[in-house]
């Protein structure tokens, strides 16, 4: 796909993200005891950088990492609203502590669908964490248990998040501004 020309304006710096992750992990420790193994489930592909930083901050416990891929925007900027599971977990989560990690909650369709699916597998405890939340875009009644940053209705990239598969490798979160 060819995208329109754009520039990226920094919105959340790498330093701010790192500080927020430390605070989020303090909250995670309150919910999940350190003597019990935690299964950290990343939603591909946008959460891969966030999950890498989260699990290293949780080095006080045994952590398993698993991934699930749900259909997302594809190459467009609008949610399809219909959520399909493209890649399921490799491991079992029944009776286990599970932390589901998402990059952005936008309309809410993706994470609410994934949470109902995973809850049907009867985990011991399941929590959700999203790096970014755009509450003004919500179309279903859903809120992640933990949120890194609430942001306005802007299209963002970086720190794992893409526009047309680019910009995932930026260390900060930036907002896409079209120049034409
Ligand atoms: P939802 O189902 O509408 O909540 O969509 C969540 C998914 O949409 C996220 O996991 C992202 O893949 C994608 N998404 C939402 N907002 C943005 C954005 O600003 N930039 C890039 N992807 C986004």
Walk me through the topology:
Elements: E1 6-12, H1 14-31, E2 38-44, H2 48-57, E3 63-70, E4 85-87, E5 97-105, H3 109-119, E6 125-133, E7 146-150, E8 156-157, E9 173-178
Parallel strand pairs: 2-3, 2-5, 5-6, 6-7
Antiparallel strand pairs: 1-9, 3-4, 8-9
Residues 46, 72-73, 79, 102-110, 155-156, 161 line the site of inosinic acid.
What do you see in this structure?
- By secondary structure, the chain is an alpha/beta fold.
- It has a single domain, classed as 3-Layer(aba) Sandwich (Rossmann fold), CATH 3.40.50.2020.
- It is built from 3 helices and 9 strands; from the N terminus they run E-H-E-H-E-E-E-H-E-E-E-E.
- The strands form 2 sheets. The chain has a 6-stranded mixed β-sheet, with helices on both faces. Strands 1-9-8 form a 3-stranded antiparallel β-sheet.
- The longest helix is centred in the N-terminal third of the chain and has 18 residues, at 14-31.
- It is globular.
- The chain binds inosinic acid.
- The site of inosinic acid has 16 residues, from strand 5 and helix 3.
Biggest β-sheet: strands ordered side by side in the sheet: 4-3-2-5-6-7
CATH architecture: 3-Layer(aba) Sandwich
Assign the CATH class.
Answer: Alpha Beta
Which band does the percent of strand residues land in?
A: 25-35%
CATH topology: Rossmann fold
GO molecular function, one term: hypoxanthine phosphoribosyltransferase activity
Family: Belongs to the purine/pyrimidine phosphoribosyltransferase family.
GO cellular component, one term: cytosol
Protein name: Hypoxanthine phosphoribosyltransferase
